[in-house]
Structure formats: C-alpha cells, structure tokens
Amino acid sequence: MTPPTPTEGTERPAALRALLLVLLFSLPILITVRPIRDLDIWWHLREGQWIIEERTVPFTDPFSSYGAGKRWLAYSWLFEVLVYGLYHVFGLLGLVLYTASMALLITLALHGLVRQAGADPVIACVLTAAGVIAMAPVLVHPRPWLLTIFFFVVELYLVGVFRRTARPWPLLLLPPLFALWANINIQFVYGLFVLAIATIEPLVERPGLARRQTRQVLLSPMAALFAACLLATLANPYGFRVYVPVFEAVTLTKPFLFLQELEAPRFRSVFDWTMLAVTLGGVYTLGRKGVLRAFPTLLLACGAFLSFRASRDVWFVVVVSLMIMAAHRPKSGRVIEPLAPRWRFLMAVAVGSVAAAIVPLRANRSALERALAQTFPEKAATVVEQHGYTGIIYNDYDWGGYLIWRLPRLIVSMDGRNPLHGDTRILQSVATWSGREGWDKDPELAAAGIVIGNRKSALVSLLRRDARFDLVHEDDVAVVFVPHR
User: Fold this and answer.
1) How far is 124 from 322, CA to CA, in rounded Å?
2) Which of 215, 253, 342, 399 is deepest in the core (most CB within 10 A)?
3) Residue 394: which H helix or E strand, with range?
4) What whole-number distance in Å separates Cα of residue 482 and Cα of residue 418?
5) Rounded CA gap, 114 and 400, in Å?
6) For residues 326 and 124, is the Cβ–Cβ distance under 8 A?
7) pLDDT digits (tens, 9 = 90+) for 303-345
8) pTM of the model as a whole
9) By three-state DSSP, how is residue 363 classified?
C-alpha cells in the first residue's frame, strides 16, 4: 500500500479542524436566531429613540408615573442608541441580528482566549462549544450584557498576553475599551475587578512582602493600568455619577426573589448542568496543580459567587473556568500551523450558509410579529391607540417595558428598571397583581386611567367583578380595563 504523501497527511487534519470550527461557529447562530421574547429590550429601545430625538441623555425618568422628576441615568445609552438604530433600519430582525452577531463575536473571542491559554485546536473547539452551551440562556437576550461578555473575554485575552510575554502593548488597548464599556453597561465594574486582582496578586500570594516591595507592586504597570482604566470609565455623559446605578443595583435584594434572570440557576436544563460541569472542571484543574495562584483562584471564586447567585451572570464563571482549564492542560509540544487562507474562506462560506438558511426560517417577518403578538399585549395596545384612551397605565412588571415602547404618548406605573422603582414598589406591584389581601386599596390601581394585564393574572379575574372598572377589550394574551363612567 502506497504511504500517504506529505500533502495528504496535512490536509486531513486541516479539514477536520475546519469542520470543527464550522460546527462551533454555527452553534451560536442556531441558539440565538429566534423570535424576540425579552421583556426589557423594549424600554431600552424607547430610551434610544428618546436620546436620538432629544439629542441628549436623560437625567430624570420620562417614562413612568413614579419616576417623573426622579433621578434616572441611562447608563446603557450607547447600547440603546445602537439597538434603536438597528431596529430603525431592520425592524424586529435588527434585534435578532444584534443578538446573533454578538453571540458569534463572543464565541470567536472565547475561542481565541482558550487557544491563547494553550489548548490545542480540537480541545479549544470542545471547550468553547461547552462554554457557548452553558451561556446559551444569556446569549439569547438582546441585552447590553452581550457586549459586556465580549469585552470581558477581550480583557482577559489582553491581560493574558501581558502576563505571558511582559509586552506592554496589550495594556494600552484597555483604557479605550473601558471608556467604551462604561457607556454601554454598568457591568464594566467586573472588568475593573479583574484588573484589581491582577494588581494585588503579588501582595495576596506573598503577604510578607517588605514595605519597599509593596510600594513597587502598587506602582507596577498593572496598578497604573487600573488607575488609567478607572479614569477612562468617567468618560461618559454622567461622569462619576455612573457609579450610582452600580451601588443601587448591588443594594437591591427583593427582585432576586421573583425575577427569573436574577434567580439562582435551577438546574432544570442541559445549559445549567453544562455550566456546572465547566465550573467543576475549572475547580478540579486548579486543585490538581497543588499551588493556587491568586489571579485565577480569586476570579473563579468571584465568578462562582456571582453565577450561582443570579443566572444572568453565569457567563462569568464559565469564561474563567474555560481559561483555567485551557491554561493548565498538559502541552503536547507540537507546533500547530494556522489554517491556510482557503480553509478560512471555506469556513466563512459554510457558516454564512448556515446563517442564510436559519435566519429566513426562524426570523422571518411573520414569525417575529406572530411571536410578538403571542408574548406581549400588542392587540391591547392597538385598542388603546384606536380608542384614544388616556391616563396612567396600570400594568405589571413584565409588560411595562413593552408598553413604554409601544405606547410612547402614555406613561406606565411599573417597568423593569429595578433601581428606579426600588424593592418596596416592586413588591407592592407583585402583591396587587397576585390578588393578595389589600389589592383593592392599591392607590396606583385606583388612580389608573387604563389597566392592561395578562388575562391569566389574579388581578384581572378580580377586576372582572370590580364595579370601578369596565372591560373594554380581551384577547388570548391581554385584557384592557378603563374606569367606569
């Protein structure tokens, strides 16, 4: 039998690697291309529209009855302008394109981080795919946290390059990244936490450092970088006040009891179990080394706390665990050549073909509009518009964001902006809509000009027999009441 030629011996692995990469980068498309069912994207859209129309950012809330005149900082203003621009051009498809594009970028960055940490091509694809699956419940929402995940992975990549090579150029990219990040999502503080750990790592690992050595650590390039990035976060329309929503978000506690995205993972899906497996892989890998380094250990501990506290933060522990597993795998010593340009071109064509097939199938206009009408009070909002009903809308927590967007000339009583409304008001709204004792004495309900509620809610059942209100519309999703005249 004739032995394979050198060309044959190298083509086969290249073809396998290309196939694995096509499967990997098709995964986020398959996960994220679907109708929009997110509850909060709508008030983000309305805020983006308001910012463009007013050519400024809000300092007080213009959208709710409670928030009128109260401080409200649009801390995600740049994201909101971006998604409103996409919606303005592409409609609902623009939101799908944002979600899918960011999921692809996150996958690309995560794969680069794992490869940079030392994983061989096949292991890198497997680890990255596991990470994407574990983060899937987060990736499907068109939220600013998608940009945070991307920036976080990029930050870890750049810090990793510096820690491995001692070359300073990667650090120069971080201050502008933080200046951008601080205008997109308040979770930029997670990125500052990474830099803080990298700065104090020598002090944590060697607590007996002499005073002079301690001074050298605090004056190190990482300390200067932390200071520069901290200053860069102030390059936003609100200056230092951008940290106020951070404090408010940390001090809110009650929404963690009933909001699904703020609940701990329930471990009722393959995504949660994959997250747990990835986390345990990171813990096992660190423990196997015998010597715990401060940087990965503290990051993993912080990630575990955040991710098991709130399901929307599962990405933190997943990214850190994958980095740890990739960095501490035994190295084969083989030099692996990058794929040839023609393989990269074929990969791009293949992934593009997957997207071209999936988008028209799952995200065509009729499918998006049908899902919208099945999830949100679209028909109810149309009735309110057609009949010219006026007054404050009394609505539940879930639909407030959509009504802010759908009925811009009216104001709502409640929406998903937790820091604005606070624990007490949110719990009061939940109690009223649940029909608990005292629901009929809720002053906001009594003062409402319009009530829009889920037809299956307890309050709707009670209002059907309440002489103070008349039912003027009912469909499969929502019911509309107005005060009895």
Assistant:
1) 9
2) 399
3) strand 393-394
4) 27
5) 40
6) yes
7) 999 898 888 899 999 999 999 998 876 655 565 677 788 888 8
8) 0.92
9) coil
